[in-house]
Amino acid sequence: MTPLAPRAYQIADKFRERGKKVVLGGFHATWMPDEAIRHADAVVQGEAEGVWPKVLEDIKNNRQQKFYKNSSLPKVSDLIIPRRDLLALKSYFFINLVQTTRGCPYDCKFCSVTAFYGGTYRLRPIEEIEKEVEGLTGGAGFILFVDDNIVGNTQYARKLFTMLKGHNRKWVSQASVTIADNIELLKLAAESGCYGLFMGFETLNQENLDLMGKPFNKIQKYKDIIAKIHGHGIGVHGSFIFGYDYDDKGVFERLVKFTEDVRLDAAFMPVLTPFPGTEIYRRMEAEGRIIERDWAKYDMEHVVYKPKGMTAEELQEGHDWANKRFYSYPSILKRIGNLRRSLMVFGPMNWDLRRAWKKALCIERLKNP
């Protein structure tokens, strides 16, 4: 991933100094292959399934190429179930991560997912997922489905949730706001063990949504959407991004007030970040608005471009204030002080995010006293 690239390059360089072969891959290496190859013997662009055996065979026979890429997208029906029993389990906080779909049916301009996965939305066979779920242990019975949109295909989601009902597992995942329009599917998600959903609301300004390719989100429906999901005992982790072209200096207070009024269980409130490979990166690059090339600052917490509705400094200060306020004790108590079953997920999450945010602020102050 882009913000991890500098550290990955450091590690790669150390291994190469010791005569070891290094292969780099992932989102950043896919979009910046000429940069990545300076720190590796080979770079895999895109998904690794299908091409990985060839990479290993070529390295074994000392004939590796610089760049590898699948000629066609891998079939998700051929995915291998991970050997979690090989992990040093005590070294991990959580290992029950499962992918049921790959890609996303939408094409948001700030998101790398659609471009990376070839503009497709691929579905794993339900029987394969059931086999993987049956092999999971620990994690207080929880599963994190790492799909970018677990309800991107409602017919498939219905089959998946029906299968999960028979396994008495609790789970969380990501979904589009459209799930609230399908009460049958929402009810089935709750019955199948869903305790929380991460959702991209993105902004409280419809012009921003249209600009970013997400016009199906309707601002006037947000309160009703959250209320419907809460009504089924499911918590909402909302994602809102600061710094869109139609944002002004008042956006921070407006958003925090909204999150508290609707009692949002948790929120991800980053700065808009033009990641390589995205449409927003290409547009800002063409407009000469990118002001920072240190990939470590592409962590969605630092302003790396020139915003339109405020200065870069005002965007940074507003972002910091909003996150500090949202994860203050009064805000946490106001938002999650009820008996929804999702409290067992979002109570600890708010506490941990509060600690993480305070730590991040302390580190930033040490860097910039």
Approximate shape: globular
Helix content: 40-55%
Q: Point out poorly predicted stretches.
A: none
Work out the strand percent. Answer: 5-15%
Rg from Cα: 21 Å
Count of strand segments: 11
The number of helices is: 15
CATH class of the largest domain: Alpha Beta
Outline the biggest β-sheet: 6 strands, parallel
- Counting structural domains, the number is 2
C-alpha end-to-end distance: 29 Å
Topology at a glance:
Elements: H1 5-17, E1 23-24, H2 27-31, H3 33-36, E2 42-45, H4 52-60, E3 67-69, E4 97-98, E5 101-103, H5 113-116, E6 121-123, H6 126-134, E7 142-145, H7 154-165, E8 170-174, H8 183-191, E9 194-202, H9 206-211, H10 222-231, E10 235-240, H11 251-261, E11 266-268, H12 279-287, H13 312-326, H14 329-336, H15 343-367
Parallel strand pairs: 1-2, 2-3, 4-7, 7-8, 8-9, 9-10, 10-11
Antiparallel strand pairs: 5-6
Helix pairs in contact: 7-8, 11-13
Notes on the structure:
Helix 11 (251-261) packs parallel to helix 13. 40% of the residues lie in helices and 12% in strands. The protein is an alpha/beta fold. The protein is built from 15 helices and eleven strands. It has a six-stranded parallel beta sheet, sandwiched between helices. It has a three-stranded parallel beta sheet with strand order 1-2-3. The protein is globular, with a radius of gyration of 21 Å. It has helices at residues 5-17, 27-31, 33-36, 52-60, 113-116, 126-134, 154-165, 183-191, 206-211, 222-231, 251-261, 279-287, 312-326, 329-336, 343-367; strands at 23-24, 42-45, 67-69, 97-98, 101-103, 121-123, 142-145, 170-174, 194-202, 235-240, 266-268. It folds into two domains: 2-69, no CATH class; 76-367, tm_1862 like domain (pyruvate-formate lyase- activating enzyme), CATH 3.80.30.20.
